[in-house]
């Protein structure tokens, strides 16, 4: 997936400008984004504060780390079961 030019904090700041009264067309022109991008960000981050977005990112990172850990432990468990089940 292509990395965004904007950080989550920047996206939320742009959405905040829109809530403050700026028109969507003007915001998109000023920041060099399409209206579709603006509305996609609004659906994902609408009403979110910057601190909440950071917390969400931290939780996603932690979740990915835990999923990798569970996958590794599952593989180890299967390997041990295969060794124990073999008859010598």
Automatic annotation (TrEMBL):
It comes from the Bacteria. It holds the Pfam family HTH_Tnp_1. SUPFAM superfamilies: Homeodomain-like. Coiled coil: none annotated. This is Transposase. It comes from Gloeobacter morelensis MG652769. The lineage of its organism: Bacteria, Bacillati, Cyanobacteriota, Cyanophyceae, Gloeobacterales.
């Amino acid at each position: 997936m292509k990395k965004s030019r904007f950080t989550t904090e920047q996206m939320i700041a742009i959405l905040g400008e829109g809530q403050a009264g700026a028109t969507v067309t003007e915001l998109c022109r000023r920041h060099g984004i399409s209206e579709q991008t603006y509305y996609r960000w609004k659906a994902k981050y609408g009403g979110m504060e910057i601190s909440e977005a950071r917390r969400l990112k931290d939780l996603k990172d932690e979740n990915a780390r835990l999923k990798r850990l569970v996958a590794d432990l599952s593989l180890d468990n299967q390997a041990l079961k295969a060794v124990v089940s073999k008859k010598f």
